[in-house]
Amino acid sequence: MAHILVVEDDQDIADLIVHYLHNAGYTTDRLASGAGVMRQLQQTAADLVILDLMLPGLSGMAVCRAMREDAATAHVPIIMLTARGDEADRLAGFAQGADDYVTKPFSAKELVARVGARLRRAGTGANGEAGVLRYGDIVVDADRHRVTVEGKDVRLTAKEFLLLQYLVRHRGRVLSRDLLLTDVWGYQYTGGTRTVDVHIRRLREKLPSLNDSIETVKQFGYRLA
User: Fold this and answer.
1) What is the distance between the alpha carbons of residues 166 and 65, in angstroms, rounded to a whole number?
2) pLDDT per residue as tens digits for the range 76-101
3) How far apart are alpha carbons 58 and 54 in whole angstroms?
């Protein structure tokens, strides 16, 4: 069962989110400030964090940045929840590492749907079982956020890991750059398709066995053979 950390200082909103998450089959922890988030994640790992932007003490932006800078939490999806919905705020949230952005007031059902979508992209469902993927001598362990080649660890960034996982799960399919951006970076990402090419190049560099396996489909995208 996937576990969600809800960080929201408005008790009524937090109660509503937790209620809908429990109905959807998730377990939860909740905090009313940003100061204790990293400590909480050290004590109890979370599969996803719903993070309010305007928090007392440590802001949601600062928490997001701290999570992305810590190897233990860099891979955890973050859905940022805020009343500030202008483009500059959204872009700032994505720049700090947020995976999705929900503006208040919001539909609790839509929020839960976004949680499910994010967990699927990260390889974790409501049952919390992400499993282990294998491709040749490459092993992708989503539960431990670990990639090994012949038993040796390969260090990947959070997005490199998610991209590799997505390619392996959809091996044999031609995947457009737009599809990869939507399913790996999120439909609100505005950085352009060039970032896909950059991350593919990094995967080839870090995992040489993929050099011939990742095929470039001219003017479209990629396919893992």
Assistant:
1) 24
2) 889 998 876 666 666 776 777 888 88
3) 9
Query: CA 71 to CA 220: how far, in whole Å?
Result: 33
Task: Give the DSSP H or E segment for 170.
Answer: none
Show the tokens assigned to 147. Answer: 């990639």
Q: Where are the alpha helices (DSSP H) in 3-58?
A: 11-23, 37-43
Tokens of 197: 């090419």
Omega prior to 105 cis, within 30 of 0: yes
**Helix pair 87-96, 60-69: axis angle to 10 deg:** 30
Phi, psi dihedrals of residue 153, rounded to the nearest 5°: -70, 140
Sheet with strand 221-224: strands edge to edge: 174-176, 221-224, 214-217
Q: CA-CA distance, 112 to 107, in Å (whole number)?
A: 9
Is residue 163 within 8 A of residue 185, CB to CB? The reply is: no
CB contact burial 117-138 (16+ within 10 A = b; e otherwise): bbbebbbbbbeeebeebebeeb
Q: What is the pLDDT of residues 179-225, one digit of tens each?
A: 888 888 875 566 677 889 999 999 999 999 898 899 999 888 899 98
Q: Set out the domains of the chain in order of their start, with CATH numbers.
A: 3-122 (3.40.50.2300), 132-224 (1.10.10.10)
DSSP H or E run through 118: helix 108-122
DSSP-derived letter for residue 85 is -
What is this structure's pTM?
0.57
Distance in angstroms (rounded) separating the CA atoms of residues 122 and 142: 8
